[in-house]
Amino acid sequence: MNNGVMSDVVLSLRGLVRAYPIADGRTLDVLKGVDLDLRAGEVVGLIGPSGSGKSSLLHCIGLLESSEEAQLTIDGEDFTHASEAARTRARLHKIGFVYQFHHLLPEFTALGNVALPQRVLGLPLKQAETRARGLLEQLGLGERLVHQPAQLSGGEQQRVAIARALVNGPRLLLADEPTGNLDPQTSQQVFDALRTIVKAQGVAALIATHNLELAGHMDRVVSLKDGRLVETVPGSL
C-alpha cells in the first residue's frame, strides 16, 4: 500500500447490502449499507442482537459470501469484483477465522493442527512446525504441543484454534463468538491471549460477541442496529 495516513488500514468496506429470500418472494434486508474500516493492531468488537447480521457481515468480509457490489479492500487489494480463485487465495493468505467451536482435527496434536494450514500452502514440515510451535508457546501452550484436542481444556482448544488462524500470517482476523462456549474466567483468559498476539503481529481483528463485558475491553465497539453499524463507546457497555 502507499505510505501515508491511511497506510495502516487493513480493511475498508463501503456500502455492504445483504438480503435473504423469505416466503412469498419477499426478502429480508439484514445489512442495509454497512461501512467499516479496520486498522493494523486494532481489536474491534462487533455486537448486536441475534439475527442482526453479525455472522453475515463476517462472512462477507471474509469472502465466504457475496458482498453484492460493496466496495471491499483487504490489505490494499480490491475484492469488489474478485474471482473465486482470488477470494480463495485471500482466505489462505490474508484472512484468519476463529469460530465459537474450535473445529480442531481430533487425530492431530495441537502442533499438528496449527502446522496444517502451512502444509496446505506447501511449506516443509520442519518449517511449518517451527512456526506453529512459536505461536503455541506465545499462547501459553508450550507444554501441550503433543496433546490431542480431547486431552486439552476448552480454553486450551480455543487457543490452539487462534494459533491455527494466525499461523499463515494473515492481515485480518475474524472471530465469531470465539469465547461463547467458555466460562467467564476462561473467556477472559482466551481473549487476553488473542488480544496480546494480535497486537504483537499487527493484525486487524473484528470479534463478534454477545459478551458485553468482554467487548468493553476492546479498542472500539461497533453495534449492528437496523442493518447499519453504529460506533459504541466500550466503557459505556
TrEMBL record:
SUPFAM superfamilies tied to this protein: P-loop containing nucleoside triphosphate hydrolases (SSF52540)
Domain of life: Bacteria
Single GO MF annotation: ATP binding
Keyword annotations from UniProtKB, A to Z: ATP-binding, Cell inner membrane, Cell membrane, Membrane, Nucleotide-binding, Transport
Pfam family name, one: ABC_tran
InterPro entries in the record: AAA+_ATPase, ABC_transporter-like_ATP-bd, ABC_transporter-like_CS, ABC_transpr_LolD-like, MacB-like_ATP-bd, P-loop_NTPase
Residue runs in coiled coils: none
Cellular component, GO, one term: plasma membrane
PROSITE patterns referenced in this protein's UniProt entry, alphabetically: ABC_TRANSPORTER_1 (PS00211), ABC_TRANSPORTER_2 (PS50893)
Regions that span the bilayer: none
Annotated GO biological process: lipoprotein localization to outer membrane; protein localization to outer membrane
Keyword hit for Glycoprotein: no
Domain ABC transporter: from-to ranges: 11-237
Family per record: Belongs to the ABC transporter superfamily. Macrolide exporter (TC 3.A.1.122) family.
Name under which the protein is recorded: ABC transporter related protein
